[in-house]
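Input record, target 12 of the design panel.
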């Protein structure tokens, strides 16, 4: 189950969102030269990835540079999809410069969350997931009832469903907490605590904007939905696939 689009159109051109996606893709294309050369890739990560132990010793550069590195095609594809869906609306609300500051601050908070979870770890952490989690946290606060289309693949059933953002984002956040609590940081893998920290940071950083919009009165006025007409997509033409006897 993963989101493919929302019904919340942006009111301005999201230049910063486009630029962030382009920057991530360009860096990933640059990384491809290290494919199959573990020594060169490890050296590249040594200079630019986030190592919690390095941050614990006062070396902070990886907190920013690691946001633009990815460990594989599916890693960057998933992250850029989430940024594409939720980033434009947050850029609408914050403005171009404000959104860039918000995005980077969320990513830094996510990295610090990973450092706090395992301060002596020597495993490199890479990816835009923490910053994008911040975007999702802010989106949840501003548009809890905006519709999000999710793609569901369940054995022989393939469908697209529209569900409220609070359900999709709340479920996503809950899985990060649950899986983070059960994960062994020493084994590497997904940085669940970075995701959770980024999400909380994004939500908190959005509170002043939400209050300027009227706080709970903003929700009451719009019923948690975007303050403009939503996009009405045609019913999904993805068929239900059933097993033949």
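The sequence produced for target 12 reads:
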């Amino acid at each position: 189950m993963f989101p493919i689009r929302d019904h919340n159109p942006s009111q301005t051109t999201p230049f910063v969102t486009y630029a962030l996606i382009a920057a991530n893709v360009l860096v990933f294309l640059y990384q491809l030269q290290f494919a199959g050369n573990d020594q060169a890739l490890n050296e590249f990560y040594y200079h630019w990835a986030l190592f919690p132990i390095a941050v614990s010793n006062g070396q902070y550069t990886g907190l920013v540079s690691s946001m633009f590195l990815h460990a594989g095609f599916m890693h960057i594809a998933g992250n850029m999809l989430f940024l594409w869906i939720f980033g434009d609306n947050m850029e609408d609300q914050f403005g171009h410069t404000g959104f860039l500051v918000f995005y980077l601050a969320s990513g830094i908070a996510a990295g610090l969350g990973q450092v706090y979870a395992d301060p002596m770890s020597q495993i490199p952490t890479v990816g835009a997931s923490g910053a994008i989690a911040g975007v999702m946290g802010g989106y949840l606060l501003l548009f809890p009832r905006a519709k999000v289309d999710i793609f569901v693949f369940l054995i022989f059933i393939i469908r697209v469903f529209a569900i409220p953002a609070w359900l999709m984002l709340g479920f996503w956040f809950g899985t990060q907490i649950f899986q983070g609590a059960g994960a062994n940081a020493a084994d590497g893998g997904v940085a669940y605590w970075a995701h959770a920290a980024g999400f909380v940071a994004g939500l908190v950083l959005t509170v002043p904007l939400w209050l300027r919009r009227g706080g709970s009165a903003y929700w009451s006025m719009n019923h948690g939905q975007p303050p403009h007409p939503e996009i009405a997509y045609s019913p999904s033409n993805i068929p239900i696939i059933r097993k033949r006897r």
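Residues 140 and 169 are 7 Å apart (CA to CA).
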